[in-house]
UniProtKB/TrEMBL annotation:
Belongs to the class-II aminoacyl-tRNA synthetase family. It comes from Crenobacter cavernae. Keywords: Aminoacyl-tRNA synthetase, ATP-binding, Coiled coil, Cytoplasm, Ligase, Metal-binding, Nucleotide-binding, Protein biosynthesis, RNA-binding, tRNA-binding, Zinc. Consists of three domains; the N-terminal catalytic domain, the editing domain and the C-terminal C-Ala domain. The editing domain removes incorrectly charged amino acids, while the C-Ala domain, along with tRNA(Ala), serves as a bridge to cooperatively bring together the editing and aminoacylation centers thus stimulating deacylation of misacylated tRNAs. This is Alanine--tRNA ligase. The gene is alaS. The chain holds residues 1 to 474 of 876 of the full protein.
Length: 474
């Protein structure tokens, strides 16, 4: 079953159960300063769960664009290393706003996964987790659905403080949250890893495909949980993960959609196609996040969302460089992505030229310093230390436009770390210096802290102009 068919089947199934099909919201969350990017299907319904917003429906289903590259849910460092994490992915979800609760949510999920009419997955390959004290969910799985007790794992308090565990889902530090039950697929003994709750659960044999959250609380800034007006349901299933299961492959990168992107990446980087080259996986992953973010109005910049985008683009460019591609290539993948996903997300086609242009500009900009920066880094690494010194990391950041995580990514490939304290100290020293410089320039009664000038090398140009403008005014 193709990825696009699975997406449609999911929506059809929940529509047949009285759910309204709602379009994905933007990756830039509207009116939610607590959130960097949309990281789950429930984000666009946050106020409905909290009781502040009312919709003409009490059941909804979506296929939601998500990015997890910052904030509470950050999978950037996992990309290329695990079989199951992307920066951008699609989350299929069904939602109940004070309508059905645990029982129906579990029964729907099981029917969709196992009924031959829908996905028809073999029941014996599935296992589930419930929140440690959630006897109700345990009993529904065990007695009504018929999952044997040994395939239901209680997770919660054993992982430290209650409510901090994996089976208590939270969107961020604040907001709607609640206990959850997760469904895992067993990819087989030949793959390393143990069942959830076991010491080697981080392996990729058992892959979490679907999380069903029983939304019951709102967490405030102090961490206090307040009951929601009505118990609700929020679920999320990773489309790429369930595609892998249905297509009989283990890693998300082996599904139809990613095969096309990996081939395109190999073509543009001029290396033979392979699905086992981490850098190709990173590029295939990152083109989705970057293109979708730009389509939703984010542009590379030096702070906030724009800086996260800049970091992802530069990581992708560096991985191309690592494979030997010193020219511009990344923006050429947009057409391939639009061909794969433009049907479901027309904004990719509508804004293709804008996306290509923004990526190309960023490639041109980074090309000016990448080569020199790499030479500096190689020279530092050639010293054979276990740790990259903070001064070099800062120079790369400040002068050559290497975000710290990009440098860390390169170091990690060589099993090295970065002297973070040294980096911070170099950053602070530069801040102090430019504070002094800008106070000097101001000399009059304008109080300008000059903090912005320190963010990185590129800012200096524009901020200097601002300082100059202020100064002229006096
Ligand atoms: P994991 O433990 O594997 O990191 P999670 O528990 O953080 O996943 P949830 O927040 O429960 O994930 O999100 C719901 C579903 O979205 C997951 O069950 C999974 O199928 C999918 N998902 C989560 N993160 C990613 C990701 N980075 N890339 C692809 N799919 C993801
Ligand atoms: Mg996760
Ligand atoms: Mg999990
Ligand atoms: Mg989960």
């Amino acid at each position: 079953m193709k990825t696009s068919e699975i997406r449609q089947k999911f929506l059809d199934f929940f529509a047949s159960k009285g759910h309204q099909i709602v379009a994905s919201s933007s990756l830039v969350p509207g009116n939610d300063p607590t959130l960097l990017f949309t990281n789950a299907g429930m984000n666009q319904f946050k106020d409905v769960f909290l009781g502040f917003d009312k919709r003409p429906y009490t059941r909804a289903t979506t296929s939601q664009k998500c990015v997890r590259a910052g904030g509470k849910h950050n999978d950037l460092e996992n990309v290329g290393y695990t079989a199951r994490h992307h920066t951008f992915f699609e989350m299929l979800g069904n939602f109940s706003f004070g309508d059905y609760f645990k029982r129906d949510a579990i029964l729907f999920a099981w029917e969709f996964l196992t009924s031959p009419q829908w996905l028809g997955l073999p029941k014996e390959k599935l296992m589930v987790t419930v929140y440690a004290t959630d006897d109700e969910a345990f009993d529904i799985w065990n007695q009504e659905v018929g999952v044997p007790a040994e395939k239901i794992v209680r997770i919660g308090d054993n992982k430290g403080a209650a409510y901090a565990s994996d089976n208590f889902w939270t969107m961020g530090d604040t907001g709607p949250c609640g206990p959850c039950t997760e469904i895992f697929y067993d990819h087989g003994e030949h793959i390393w890893g143990g069942p959830p709750g076991s010491p080697d659960e981080d392996g990729d044999r058992f892959i979490e495909i679907w999380n069903n959250v029983f939304m019951q609380f709102n967490r405030d800034e102090t961490g206090t949980l307040h009951p929601l007006p009505k118990p609700s349901v929020d679920t999320g299933m990773g489309l790429e993960r369930v595609s892998a299961v249905l297509q009989g492959v283990h890693a998300n990168y082996e599904i139809d959609l990613f095969q096309a992107l990996l081939k395109a990446a190999a073509r543009e980087v001029s290396v033979p196609f392979s699905q086992d080259v981490p850098s190709l996986k990173v590029i295939a992953d990152h083109i989705r996040a970057c293109a979708f973010l730009i389509a939703d109005g984010v542009l590379p910049s030096n702070d906030g969302r724009g800086y996260v985008l800049r970091r992802i683009i530069r990581r992708a460019i560096r991985h191309g460089y690592k494979l030997g591609q010193k020219g511009l290539f990344f923006h050429k993948l947009v057409a391939d992505l639009a061909a794969e996903m433009g049907g479901a997300y027309p904004e990719l086609r509508e804004r293709q030229a804008v996306i290509e242009d923004a990526l190309k500009q960023e490639e041109i900009k980074f090309a000016e310093t990448l080569d020199k920066g790499m030479a500096l880094l190689e020279a530092a690494l050639a010293k054979g230390e276990k740790e990259l010194d903070g001064k070099t990391a800062f120079q790369l950041y400040d002068t050559f436009g290497f975000p710290l995580d990009l440098t860390a990514d390169i170091c990690r490939e060589r099993e090295l770390t970065i002297d973070q304290a040294g980096f911070d100290a170099a950053m602070e020293a530069q801040r102090a210096q430019s504070r002094a410089a800008s106070t000097f320039k101001m000399s009059g009664n304008v109080d300008y802290s000059g903090d912005d000038t320190c963010f990185n090398g590129y800012d200096l140009v524009s901020v200097d102009a601002r300082v100059l403008a202020l100064y002229k005014g006096h």
